[in-house]
Amino acid sequence: MWAETDSTLRKSVIGNIIIKGLAKDINNLALSRTFSGFRKILSSRVVCDSNKEQKGYGFIHYTTLKAAGLVIKKLDGTLLSGYLVSICHFKTHKEHQAEQKSSSKPPQKKDFSLYVQNMPYSLGSEELGTLFSAFGEVTSATVIKKKRRSMGYGFVTYSSLDDAVIATSVMNGYIVGNRPLRVTFSHSAEKTRQIEQPINATFCRRRAGYERTRAD
C-alpha cells in the first residue's frame, strides 16, 4: 500500500473512494499509478485475503471530496485492464448509521448482519455464504424459502462489523446471475419481517375461516 507521510491528512475519510471489479493482476502500485494520474492521492490499497489473493476491490484516498467526485464521474463504469469497474464514495459505518437514521431506520449496536435482496432464485444458502466470505468470516448465511423455493432474499452475518461494512459497500449493486443485489444492514428488514409474519398469518387464518363459512 502506498500512503502519504502526513498522518493528519490520511486520517481524514473525506475523498475516500472504493473501486469494485478490479482485475486480479491489479496490485497496489498499478492502482496507485492509474488513479494518481487524475488527482493527487493520499493513499491506495488493493484488498487481499489471508492467502494474499486479491479480492477484486480496492481503495483510493484523494485529498478532497471534489477530487474524488470528479474521478468517480470520469471513471465509474469504464474498463480497467479489460474489466468493467464500479467506483463510488466509500462510506464508513457512521455514515451508514446517519443514512439509516435519516430514513427512520436506526441501526442496532453489534448488528453484523446484512439483508440481501434481488438474488437469483437458483442461489442457495451455501453459495450465498461463499459469495460473501470474500470479505471476512461469515458466521451464517441463509436464503429465505417458502415451500422449499427461494424467495429471492436472505441474510448474511459476519463476525466483524468492519467486514460487514466493506461487504455492504462492495456487494450492493453487484451483479449475480444478471441481477443487481441490494445489500443493507439487516436490523430494519428483520423487524419488518417479524411484524409482517404474524400479520400475514392472521390474515391467512381469517381468509381460510371466511372461505369455510362460504362453503357451508
UniProtKB/TrEMBL annotation:
UniProt KW keywords? RNA-binding
What InterPro entries would the database entry show? Euk_RNA-bind_prot, RRM_dom
Q: Where is the RRM domain?
A: 15-92, 112-188
Identify a single GO molecular function assigned to this protein: mRNA binding
Q: What is the name listed in the Swiss-Prot or TrEMBL entry for this protein?
A: RRM domain-containing protein
Q: Which organism is it from?
A: Cyprinus carpio carpio
Q: Tell me the lineage of the source organism.
A: Eukaryota, Metazoa, Chordata, Craniata, Vertebrata
